[in-house]
Write a structure and sequence with these properties.
65% of the residues lie in helices and 0% in strands. It is built from four helices and no strands. Helix 2 runs antiparallel to helix 3 and helix 2 packs parallel to helix 4. The chain is globular, with a radius of gyration of 13 Å.
Length: 93
């Protein structure tokens, strides 16, 4: 439940809540979120979904960096891999 978005909420609210809740969730939930963000960002870095502009991709990376900021301190290896993706995309952490 800690890592599941409430799909009844608007997309922007769900995204905002991920940022707000990230620092407050359990260590195990943070590990799941870090791994999920890494998988999603690697996939997005390879190929953007149809209809996504470069601006939208960049905005997603920026949002993800804000979520990851609240998850830090539980797994250096995952965080380093995410940091490399952020650096590649020119997104500050």
């Amino acid at each position: 439940m800690e890592v599941t978005d409430d799909k009844r909420l608007a997309k922007e609210d769900r995204k905002r809540l991920q940022i707000e809740h990230a620092p407050k969730i359990s260590r195990r939930a943070k590990l799941v979120k870090l791994a999920d963000k890494l998988y999603n960002l690697r996939d997005l870095n390879r190929t953007a979904p149809v209809g996504w502009s470069e601006t939208r991709v960049h905005e997603y990376f920026e949002w993800a960096a804000n979520v990851v900021a609240g998850l830090r301190g539980v797994n250096r290896a995952l965080e380093d891999k995410l940091d490399a993706l952020f650096a590649e995309r020119g997104v500050s952490k």
